[in-house]
């Protein structure tokens, strides 16, 4: 039924991974160290200037929500066939962490393109929903409130389940009345993508959160699936 998933590299930071602890030992005294201290090497003016420039260097500023929104609207304008509903996972899709590893007292943050993309969808009249298997929905909902994005969602299905989100989508479909073939879904787990794709939802695998590139890929896959469905009906 056309394209159902993809996973190109993304620009946002990857999931944290534990680094092995490097074991080091202090060197014992040597004849050289006992006799005299090591020579001091003074950098040249050029080296010093380069070092100052390196220290002053700062990472480039992140794109603001309005700029992301403008680019997302341009991307939406590239396609005639658009979804009626876009569904997002939460952990490592909209934000870069697992809810169960955080505290309600913390101040959460979204992936840098997430809010601008949702703003663009709302302006275009496309509904947005959440499908999350988080075992701590209370923390997730507190974070959604803190981020001031609660009003963006027509449905919030946040609960632990062994169904790989088929139950979530059944509830979303009943609430919205939107058919599965008119939905677009972003998630970071293969098993969820595979399960929901079988329901007829265009599903896209993200590796490091949703961003403009993944957004464009999802819309392209959706348009391809719509075209394939129309062709099969004509035949």
Looking at this protein, list some descriptive labels.
HAD-like_sf, 5 strands, acid phosphatase activity, 235 residues, single chain, 11% strand, MDP_1_eu_arc, Rossmann fold, Magnesium-dependent phosphatase-1, disordered N terminus, alpha/beta, globular
Q: What is the CATH first-level class name?
A: Alpha Beta
Helix content: 25-40%
Write down the Rg: 24 Å
Residue runs with pLDDT of under 50 for 5 or more positions: 1-14, 17-61
Task: Specify the CATH homologous superfamily.
Answer: HAD superfamily/HAD-like
Largest sheet: 5 strands, parallel
Strand order of the largest sheet: 3-2-1-4-5
The sequence of SSEs as H and E is HHHEHEHEHEHEH
CATH level 3 topology? Rossmann fold
Number of individual domains = 1
Beta strands, count: 5
What is the overall number of helices? 8
Structural class: alpha/beta
Gap between N and C termini: 14 Å
CATH architecture: 3-Layer(aba) Sandwich
Overall geometry comes to globular
Mean pLDDT: 82
Assess the beta-strand content as a share of residues: 5-15%
Describe it for me?
A five-stranded parallel beta sheet has the order 3-2-1-4-5, with helices on both faces. The chain has helices at about 30-35, 45-55, 65-75, 115-125, 135-145, 165-175, 190-195, 210-235, and strands at about 85-90, 125-130, 155-160, 185, 200-205. Strand 4, helix 7 and strand 5 form a beta-alpha-beta unit. About 30% of the residues are buried. The longest helix is centred in the C-terminal third of the chain and has 23 residues, at about 210-235. It starts with about 30 loop residues before the first helix and ends with a helix. The protein is of the alpha/beta class and about 240 residues long. The protein has eight helices and five strands, in the order H-H-H-E-H-E-H-E-H-E-H-E-H. Helix 3 (about 65-75) crosses helix 4 (about 115-125) and helix 3 (about 65-75) runs parallel beside helix 8. The chain has a single domain (about 65-235), classed as Rossmann fold. The radius of gyration is 24 Å and the shape is globular.
